[in-house]
Automatic annotation (TrEMBL), chain A:
The lineage of its organism: Eukaryota, Metazoa, Chordata, Craniata, Vertebrata. InterPro entries: P-loop_NTPase, Rab27a/b, Small_GTP-bd, Small_GTPase, Small_GTPase_Rab. It comes from Mycteria americana. It is a lipid-anchor. This is small monomeric GTPase. Keywords: Acetylation, Disulfide bond, Endosome, GTP-binding, Hydrolase, Lipoprotein, Membrane, Methylation, Nucleotide-binding, Prenylation.
UniProtKB/TrEMBL annotation, chain B:
PANTHER family: MELANOPHILIN (PTHR14555:SF1), MYELIN-ASSOCIATED OLIGODENDROCYTIC BASIC PROTEIN MOBP -RELATED (PTHR14555). Pfam families: FYVE_2 (PF02318), Rab_eff_C (PF04698). Gene3D superfamilies: Zinc/RING finger domain, C3HC4 (zinc finger). Residues 4-124 form the RabBD domain. This is RabBD domain-containing protein. Residues 227-259, 276-326, 395-416, 492-565, 592-611, 642-661 are annotated as: Disordered. Residues 512-530 have a biased composition (Basic and acidic residues). Keywords: Coiled coil, Metal-binding, Zinc, Zinc-finger.
């Protein structure tokens, strides 16, 4: 999935971007959603645990370089990301789920050092299906805290199987070291960009001739049927 | 599951945090909405330009539909856009590898908008939910934070207002038309307690109370319309009424929101008036910007009202709205100087709209009244409509005649305009060819208009207290001297042209003219550079106090900055108009002398037919570009007006400051764009004469240019004029039509001669030219 490359841009206040894309991080309390996003946007790590109050969001500007089918560099788009951070605590549940519909893509996270958080991934998936904008939105499964290998409770095989079952990509990340953090978000962004182009192509009569190139890529993941838009 | 939104477990602190996050989200949505609107506006402009250009079906065969560069074999080959099927040059399109074809830049932009507007996504959200998440939470927070019984009805009243007008109507319309919205009723059906009651109220009014994704996508024309209507119906009744309906409501923020909605309405109408008045100043260009401005503005307002209905926490009683109040209050009671400018501007508006009163009917008094509400919102409890009407009527005469400094500003305006007009009259007295005369008058008028604007800027200066009148005067005198030179040139030329020398040596003459043109151009660019530098320095100077100074100073700085920016804009504009005048005069002179010179063209110079056509077209393009540039100028004018308005409302919040800064930046960008356009035109003039324009037979060229070029020009002008007709602005329209009529007259005399002149400049072997037109 390294077909897209992203760069950070310094200025963020202006409207000089091509697309606004909204992502949302969800998962059990304490899996590291906030630190993950903090690492992604600011490239910093805060080891202190501060529980998120309901919701929050961060923003980041990146450059999306789509690649052609043969890997040749394609168009570059400036993308403004709105990254929703949600509270994992149960008491905020009804609030946070209300925001699911405001995002186009999801970072579903669990803690590699907590078997329970991994088991709850199923629950989160069904929450997503009920509350996201459609039943099969773009999702990336993320096992966080990969740096704490001595405390690890979930092995990679398990997690990968589950991701395959849902037809979604899986990454093991570490907000502490930054490992795979960008890659996971970029992959999600790539999925969303593909869907965006595809959905527009579908609504158009004229542009369908070659619009299927990204569709082929999707067909490799049978469970994630693209919504009929 | 997950449908109910029970926020009762949240503590106040938490609820507040959530509220703030939701506000941020709304801000982001608002920005995005504005961004998309701007892009759509750009696309519309481009497509209307294309539409016009492709009326001449042959044009696109030989010229890029976007930049109007002629296609040349190998050098500048043409390619067809996948989307619009028009031909563009390489610079104006990009190759799309996936689709293995070229897509021109405007189409690429519209693709981005199509993708970026995320229609499909919102379609999904819409089909599953009633409103987007932030809106749902916002609504629930209202329910949670206003539980008291007494307050409740009041709250609902506010609620009604906040979420009404115009969003309501459109939402209703859209919901019924799309036939959805009922599938998610259960979502709110589980709201409990106070919320349930609230909900039942909402049911009665059937969705009149909610924010919905539609609100951000609705056709903004509709919203602008509905709001205007509401104003017309009850400008007097609605506001006192609204205030009486919550007499003892404790939260001052609600009052503020009320006021702010009044301001928003007044602003809207004020914009509307400005637009009505705008065309009078600069006729043919308003097609591009006015409507769009209005819609963007209205939408932003409506959104703001949704977002800031007054925080349920009492912590920010002095919002920026109340800051607005203070300023405007000052305006009403306070110093004459401060009051002068708004009055001045409004009086002008009023005068102009009165001229059109017979056409626009009862709308005029209403909008007039409302424009003044901007000022009087400070005392919403007074029967202010009456007050305001009096104020306008008194104020307009009184303050216009009140002497002192403002008078000086006005004086300089008259001093600026009249000499110009006189000079133009003088030019006419020279018995130039009809076409020349018309061109001079037309473009000169534009210059005069610009000077009217600059006088406004002078008034603006007075408002801020930093007087730079003499600087402006200096600039104006520079402009005048340039006009003088122009005049001289006309005199010299008209003396010269009948003389035999010019016949003998057309090349030398052209060289000279070109030299002068370049000189003028460099002059202009020097000036602009210097003024820009000045600006920069000024900004630097302002930067420091801004950081440390009090809020008052900040406001003043913002004003200063905007007025400074406006000044430099105006200078650029005036210079540009002069430049255009110069160009036109030069060209018509070319034409005239050429007529004399090429009455008996040598037999060897007989041209080919195809090239005559090309040259005629190329010339016409030039002319079109002049108009397009003029359009840009008009946009600048609008920006200035916005700045003016911004100055009037100058308050101290950061957001407003940054908004001003944004405006300034965009204005600067526009200036730059217009500049580049001018230089483009210049270079094309140069290219046209340098690219070996070969000699045509006089008859052919004449036939070509009168047969093809003119309909094009007419069509173009008509395009610009038509919105004026619709708006009933007959004053400006009449003037335009006069111009238009004589513009057509000008052609047989002026332009053909120009064409002939161009043909005579250089002779080239016909074979070489044959390749030029193809591919």
């Amino acid at each position: 999935m390294s077909r897209a490359r992203f760069l950070k841009i310094s200025t963020m206040t202006d409207g000089d971007y091509d697309y606004l894309i909204k992502l949302l991080a969800l998962g059990d309390s304490g899996v590291g959603k906030t630190t993950f996003l903090y690492r992604y946007t600011d490239n910093k790590f805060n080891p202190k645990f501060i529980t998120t109050v309901g919701i929050d969001f961060r923003e980041k500007r990146v450059v999306y370089n789509s690649r052609g089918p043969n890997g040749s560099p394609g168009k570059a788009f400036k993308v403004h990301l709105q990254l929703w951070d949600t509270a994992g605590q149960e008491r905020f549940r009804s609030l946070t789920t209300a925001f699911f519909r405001d995002a186009m893509g999801f970072l579903l996270m669990f803690d590699l050092t907590s078997q329970q958080s991994f088991l709850n991934v199923r629950n989160w998936m069904s929450q997503l299906q009920a509350n996201a904008y459609c039943e099969n939105p773009d999702i990336v499964l993320i096992g966080n805290k990969a740096d704490l290998s001595d405390q690890r409770e979930v092995n990679e095989r398990q997690a990968k199987d589950l991701a395959d079952k849902y037809g979604i990509p899986y990454f093991e990340t570490s907000a502490a070291t930054g490992q795979n953090v960008e890659k996971a978000v970029d992959t999600l962004l790539d999925l969303i960009m593909k869907r965006m182009e595809q959905c527009v192509d579908k609504t158009q009569v004229s542009d369908t001739a070659n619009g299927g190139s990204s569709g082929k890529l999707d067909s490799a993941k049978p469970e994630e049927k693209k919504c009929a838009c | 599951m997950g449908r109910k939104l029970d926020l009762s477990k949240l503590t106040d602190e938490e609820a507040k945090h959530v509220w703030e996050v939701v506000q941020r989200d709304f801000d982001l949505r608002k920005k995005e909405e504005e961004r998309l609107e701007e892009l759509k506006c750009k696309i519309d402009q481009e497509s209307s330009k294309r539409e016009f250009l492709t009326n001449q079906s042959h044009l696109n065969e030989t010229h890029c539909v976007h930049c109007l560069q002629p296609f040349k074999f190998l050098l500048n080959s043409k390619r067809q856009c996948l989307d619009c099927r028009f031909y563009t040059c390489k610079n104006c399109s990009r190759y799309n590898k996936k689709e293995q074809g070229w897509v021109c830049d405007p189409c690429r932009l519209s693709r981005i908008v199509r993708i970026g507007s995320l229609e499909w996504y919102y379609e999904h959200v819409r089909s599953r939910f009633k409103r987007f998440g932030s809106a749902k939470v916002l609504q629930s927070l209202y329910g949670r934070l206003q539980p008291g019984q007494g307050v409740k009805s009041t709250f609902l009243g506010l609620h009604d207002r906040v979420y009404s007008l115009p969003d309501i109507n459109s939402e209703c319309q859209l919901l019924t038309s799309s036939g959805i919205g009922d599938d998610s009723d259960d979502e709110d059906g589980v709201l409990r307690g106070a919320e349930a009651e609230c909900y039942s109220r909402m049911r009665k009014t059937k969705r009149l109370l909610s924010v919905h994704p539609f609100d951000f996508e609705l056709d903004s024309e509709y919203s602008a319309q509905s709001r205007r209507q509401s104003l017309q119906l009850s400008p007097a009744a609605s506001s006192p009424d609204a205030f009486q309906s919550f007499p003892d409501f404790p939260n001052s923020a609600e009052d503020a929101s009320q006021k702010e909605s009044r301001i928003a309405e007044a602003d809207l109408v004020f914009h509307h008036i400005l637009q009505e008045q705008g065309p009078g100043a600069s006729p043919p260009e308003q097609h591009f910007s006015t409507e769009v401005r209005l819609t963007v503005n209205s939408r932003r307002r409506s959104l703001e009202r949704n977002v800031k209905p007054g925080s349920p926490w009492n912590e920010q009683p002095q919002s920026r709205y109340s800051a607005d109040m203070d300023t405007s209050d000052e305006d009403v009671k306070g110093a004459q100087f401060h009051a002068y400018l708004p009055h001045h501007a409004k009086c002008q508006n009023r005068a102009s709209s009165q001229e059109n009163a017979s056409h626009s009917g009862n709308q005029v008094p209403n909008s007039c009244r409302t424009s003044c509400e901007t000022k009087s919102v400070a005392k919403p409890l007074l029967p202010y409509t009456v007050l305001v009407i009096c104020e306008v009527q008194d104020g307009s005469e009184e303050k216009r005649s009140s002497g002192g400094k403002p008078r000086a500003g006005r004086g300089s305006e008259e001093a600026g305009v009249h000499p110009l007009v006189l000079r133009l009259e003088e030019m006419e007295g020279l018995r130039l060819a009809g076409g020349q005369r018309q061109a001079v008058r037309d473009l000169g008028q534009r210059a005069a208009d610009c000077i009217v604007l600059s006088s406004k800027a002078v008034a603006l200066e007075l408002l801020t207290g930093t007087s730079r009148i003499h600087e402006l005067n200096k600039r104006m005198s520079a402009i005048e001297s340039m006009l003088n030179r122009l005049e001289e040139k006309i005199l010299v030329r008209s003396d010269e042209s009948p003389a035999p020398e010019s016949q003998l040596d057309p090349d030398a003459e052209e060289e000279e003219l070109k030299r002068k043109l370049e000189e003028l151009a460099s002059n202009i660019s020097d000036k602009e550079v210097s003024s820009e530098e000045e600006e920069r320095e000024e900004k630097k100077r302002m930067q420091k106090p801004e950081i440390s100074s009090s809020s008052d100073d900040m406001a003043r700085d913002a004003r200063k900055r905007s007025s400074a920016q406006a000044l430099s804009e105006i200078t650029a504009k005036v210079l540009r108009a002069i430049n255009a005048t110069e160009e036109a005069v030069c060209e018509s002179l070319h034409g005239e002398s050429q007529c004399n010179g090429s009455c008996a063209p040598p037999a060897g110079q007989l041209p080919s037919l195809g090239d005559g056509k090309e040259v005629a077209e190329a010339y016409r393009e030039l002319e079109e570009n002049v108009y397009l540039t003029a359009g840009k100028t008009y946009q600048l004018e609008k920006t200035l007006k916005e700045l003016e308005e911004g100055t009037r409302h100058s308050s101290t919040t950061d957001s407003e400051l940054s908004e001003l800064e944004d405006k300034v930046a965009s204005a600067a960008a526009q200036v730059q764009q217009a500049e580049s356009e001018i230089s483009d035109i210049e270079s094309r003039i140069a290219a046209l004469s340098a690219a070996g324009l070969t000699v045509k037979s006089v008859e052919k060229a004449r036939k070509k240019s009168s047969g093809q070029a003119m309909p094009g020009l007419q069509g173009f002008r008509r395009k610009f004029d038509s919105p004026l007709e619709i708006n009933g602005l007959d004053d400006s329209f009449d003037r335009n039509s006069v111009y238009r009529g004589s513009l057509t007259q000008r052609n047989p005399n002026g332009k053909n001669r120009r064409v002939e002149r161009l043909f005579a400049v250089r002779t080239q072997p016909p074979g070489r030219i044959a390749g030029l037109g193809s591919v």
